[in-house]
Design goal:
Layout (H helix, E strand, L loop, with lengths): L25 E5 L7 E6 L2 E2 H7 L2 H10 L5 H14 L7 H11 L4 H12 L9 H11 L4 H10 L6 H4 L6 E2 L7 H10 L7 H13 L5 E2 L1 H11 L4 H24 L19
Antiparallel strand pairs: 1-2, 2-3, 4-5
Helix pairs in contact: 3-11, 4-5, 4-12, 5-12, 6-10, 6-11, 6-12, 9-10, 9-11, 10-11
Length: 274
């Protein structure tokens, strides 16, 4: 039996295409004798060579995505987050993916695309960032204890699994609280660049302890991104980008080792469901 597919009536959009691609991010000035070769480059109006001489990588990273140079406090906050997220760690599924494809003799150039795809997932990955950023920006002016009291007043079951879906960025991992994530949030909130979102996150983290819940690493990242002015749609991709160095390092570490360098799951651990 075939299923008929109904399509909308074809119509003209009457939308003219632009004559050339436009970007406000990057300007390349062509050489005098070859317009296809750039003689110099500007990032949001700043000469690239001058940025190399006078600014840090963190400053230019912020400039690239935000269109302006950060203050000293913003740069410090971003730099510390970047260091904290540089390696998801060998427990993370994305790192395991990098290690598996590395030891499996995948081309080194393919390690990062494969692993960052996993890092962009909805579990422990970039997929958790955008909802958390939108949630924090919406709730950051409401005291955490008041929000939590109002949320729980309509909830008959106050178990961790019932509460966590209502508060993006928080929950449990492997039956417990992410210790490093809570420590990271408490460290970052003391920096001058910390804003409303990060302060709200730390207050909520303290309130949720009694219910066996804690902040996720993705939640901390979401709060910092929000405070630094990044758009929620960009948050997940930024999280992938900042975790990429660690993924690549783990993949390359195993790239020249035999496949026996990783454990092989024994037959008794496989279950065939019928």
């Amino acid at each position: 039996m075939t299923q008929e597919h109904k399509h909308d009536k074809v119509r003209s959009r009457n939308e003219p295409f632009v004559a050339r691609t436009a970007t406000r991010i990057w300007q390349e000035l062509p050489s005098d004798d070859n317009p296809y070769i750039a003689a110099s480059a500007l990032c949001h109006g700043y000469d690239l060579c001058e940025l190399m001489q006078k600014r840090s990588f963190v400053d230019v990273f912020y400039l690239l995505f935000r269109g302006e140079l950060p203050t000293a406090a913003e740069a410090q906050l971003l730099q510390q987050l970047m260091i904290a997220l540089i390696n998801p760690g060998p427990r993370h599924p994305a790192t395991r993916a990098a290690m598996n494809v590395g030891v499996g003799k995948t081309e080194p150039m393919h390690i990062l695309p494969i692993a960052t795809a996993v890092l962009g997932g909805d579990y422990m990955g970039g997929g958790e960032i955008e909802p958390a950023m939108r949630f924090f920006r919406k709730q950051q002016n409401t005291p955490a204890e008041i929000f939590l009291a109002e949320t729980l007043s309509n909830l008959s079951d106050k178990s961790p699994n019932s509460i966590s879906p209502l508060i993006p960025g928080f929950g449990i991992r492997a039956g417990g609280i992410e210790i490093i994530a809570s420590d990271l949030a408490n460290r970052l909130v003391n920096l001058e660049g910390a804003g409303k979102a990060l302060r709200w996150v730390c207050a909520m983290n303290n309130e949720l302890r009694q219910y066996g819940l804690g902040i996720f690493t993705t939640g901390v990242a979401a709060a910092v991104f929000a405070d630094l002015g990044f758009q929620p749609r960009a948050g997940g991709s930024l999280f992938q980008l900042l975790g990429a160095p660690g993924l690549l390092a783990h993949g390359l570490e195993l790239a020249n080792k035999p496949i026996t360098a990783m454990p092989f799951v024994s037959d008794e651990n496989y279950e065939i469901q019928r």
